[in-house]
Predict the 3D structure of the following.
Amino acid sequence: MATPLEDTYWHKGMRRKLVDSLRRKGVKEEHILSAMEGLPRHFFLEKAFEEKAYEDMAFPIGCEQTISQPYTVAYQTALLEVQKRDKVLEIGTGSGYQAAILALLGARVYTIERQETLYLKTKALLLKLGMRSVRCFFRDGTKGLPEFAPFDKILVTAGIDRAPQTLLDQLAIGGMLVIPVGSDVQRMERITRVGEKDYRTERFDQFKFVPFLPGLKKKEE
Ligand code: SAH
């Protein structure tokens, strides 16, 4: 891992400004904002983007994927209503930033990535950061993680036409799935499993995510 993990006063100052801007955009959950203020986002980006790490924007992380915009991370995390010790499944590990925020909120995180290159890189980074409550898997998210189900919460960080039944099946009763639904742009949905076969859907704002894709993409040798 080439990126030196150095967090200076400059970085901290930039982080405070980012968090202030999220507050102005309507993020009200102070515990989420303080987790974001505490986590150096530049650790999750290539050195070339270091100067930009504290802008409220998505950036490339390789393999044609992006780290989510901080506002989106705050928004999805708020909808998930994470409680300490919640067992959370994330689909789309990407840079690992969202998984790390969930871990800082006290969740036990299981995160799945279909791109082997990203999986390997992010797993190493999270280990280096001492994030022991995040477990990384190189899997196809369409299948979820049946051997660890049920989950209290499931978070999908890639856009998909509809919530896969496999993921709904892996929710605990009372559990919630937060997922961006749609092909070109996506509407954020929160689906609560209210009974064995009963689900309640709530719809929120629109976002634009990279696509949820089936199958695994092996690292090129
Ligand atoms: N949560 C990430 C966002 C990454 S973008 C972060 O904080 O950086 C979405 C990620 O979902 C991409 O890395 C993409 O490869 C992954 N993805 C897309 N379809 C997937 C699938 N079926 N299974 C697992 N991961 C998937």
